[in-house]
């Protein structure tokens, strides 16, 4: 995976959930303060679509390095970018690091970098990790809304449907008996004796 492919995927995922800010004076200044050693770098500034009047911008710095020797330059860039921001945006700056050119690094090294929250929160592409898995660990991934419950549906109908498929003895007569039992206000212990134990005795007798 190339650095451009990595950035493209991240950018695409951000677009699915946020609105990306166009390049402006602040963004240009952030790019300019980066060390010349950082050849692979991108700056993405974005906000939630509902925040249209005065949106609170999030800042994501994406960097590709081929040696841990460049980590100092990466962290310095993050620190300088943070200095260019005003509160509360200083709390919303993030750093994504990718190892390029078949660079071999350990999972321990990646975790060590992520564990430090100096200047900003960090996410590091781990050995053999896909771009999809990487994004799922971050805040930019799109969260699927849970399926709403149908509050108008009788839960007994669903339960009875399952029982009917599993047990041949659960016929219409049994359904009536069970519904009456659940509607009687009987304790759970008595319900168990009435429905389960009695059914077991009936099965043994037959």
Query: Number of helix segments?
Result: 8
Tell me roughly what share of residues is in helical segments: 40-55%
Q: Topology as H/E string?
A: HEHEEHEHEHHHH
Shape: elongated
Structural class: alpha/beta
By DSSP, the count of extended strands is 5
Unreliable segments of 5+ consecutive residues: none
Question: Average pLDDT, to the nearest integer?
Answer: 81
**Which strand order do you get reading across the main beta sheet?**
1-2-3-4-5
Q: How many domain regions?
A: 2
Roughly what fraction of the amino acids lie in strands? 5-15%
Largest sheet: 5 strands, mixed
Kindly provide the radius of gyration, computed on alpha-carbon positions and rounded to a whole number of angstroms: 29 Å
Gap between N and C termini: 67 Å
Layout of helices and strands:
Elements: H1 3-15, E1 19-20, H2 25-32, E2 40-47, E3 58-65, H3 71-83, E4 93-99, H4 107-115, E5 121-124, H5 131-136, H6 155-166, H7 172-182, H8 188-205
Looking at this protein, list some descriptive labels.
206 residues; alpha/beta; five-stranded mixed beta sheet; elongated; ABC-3C_MC1
Brief digest:
The protein has helices spanning 3-15, 25-32, 71-83, 107-115, 131-136, 155-166, 172-182, 188-205; strands at 19-20, 40-47, 58-65, 93-99, 121-124.
